[in-house]
Amino acid sequence: MPELADRIIAEARQHLGKPYRHAGNGPKVFDCTGFTKFVFDKFGYKLGRTVPAQAKDGREVLGKLSDLQKGDILIFGSRPNTRRMGHAGIFIGMDSTGTNFSFIHAAVKGGIQVSNLQETYYKQRFLGARRILPDFLPEVVDSSALASLSELVDKVVPRDTLSLSPADRRIILFADGSWALVDSSGALTAPAQQERLVLAEGGSWRAVTPSQVTIPDLKALEAASQKNSSATQTAPPPPADGSAQYHTIVSGDTLSGIAVKYHTTVNSLCALNGISRTTILRLGKKLRVK
Question: Which residue, 44, 75, 123, 229, shows the most beta carbons closer than 10 Å to its own?
Fold first, then answer.
């Protein structure tokens, strides 16, 4: 499955630089979920078309950031530190600190691009992740790889913890990427930090410190959203005499602008339509104004 994930990321990268457009499904223009859906469709995986729908696709990823795997769908909020889902991207990989990752997505500014979690905009909005692909099986390390790992061991494990000569060192790589040195008696010496060894692009090995940053819980987010939605005021039915008036949303519309145009208030528009001030106005949708 890592090979399939690599192909998915490679396909996603083929579209770098293509412009963002609301409701864009590709292949020339995309919005965020239009892009993730388009890429996964190429490999037989059918995703939902909206961010809340993709936040239910596959299965939730819990644990630390280092538990994310290439190809996971990342969910972001529409505003800083908010619980409203508004953006999606595809996870590419962690950096060596275990606190930052890169992802590819369709951004309103710049179109298809690669970003990272340490960018303030995304750090304040990360809500969780969904796994579409099967879990990766642990890498199998053959004997030919042990020699190259020895150089890495020299850099990671303090010299005074080693009792073996370089020629006698052996390494055991466990399923989760953690590892230890083993001597002829079978005794194990593990690095104090328990760095994980990962096989990076290009076939080189590197040590990654497991992240202590926890992935947000999307299920808790969904439960909170349902609670909030149940408390939202329900829009009243239109008058029986057919006197209700509607406005069709066009590019650039805002609630305050619509309120001024129809000599009403934003609070009145929210009450008439069962929405809040933070509701995203969708192009072509009708908004009741009277």
Answer: 75
